[in-house]
Design a protein that fits this description.
single chain; 101 residues; mainly alpha; 4 helices; 48% helix
Length: 101
């Protein structure tokens, strides 16, 4: 961007905006089309192994960027929800899954 004028940068931003807006607001339909299943409710699965193993699995599946994670267990989520009035099945926000543009 340092090699082009401000006007060119602004034109690029204006030109790409409809595509960015669509990706930001219509991802769930795209996800369902690409995967063949709804984004919510999220799938559950059982895993045998330790935290290193689950981090490796999440990275290999593209579910994480490789930064260490704490697996979202049923008990852990239940404990976290004690500090809020939210219900376990309440969706408070949605994020596009990684790599599904």
């Amino acid at each position: 961007m340092g090699m082009i004028s401000r006007a060119e940068i602004e034109k690029k931003a204006v030109d790409i905006f409809p595509e960015v807006f669509k990706a930001a607001t219509d991802w769930e339909r795209w996800f369902e089309k690409a995967s063949g299943k709804p984004a919510y409710p999220a799938e559950r699965f059982e895993f045998t192994g330790n935290v290193v193993d689950v981090n490796k699995l999440f990275f290999e599946k593209g579910w994480s960027l490789g930064i260490p994670i704490i697996p979202p267990t049923h008990d852990g989520v239940s404990e976290m929800l004690k500090g809020t009035s939210r219900k376990p099945d309440e969706v408070i926000g949605q994020m596009r899954p990684r790599m599904l543009l």
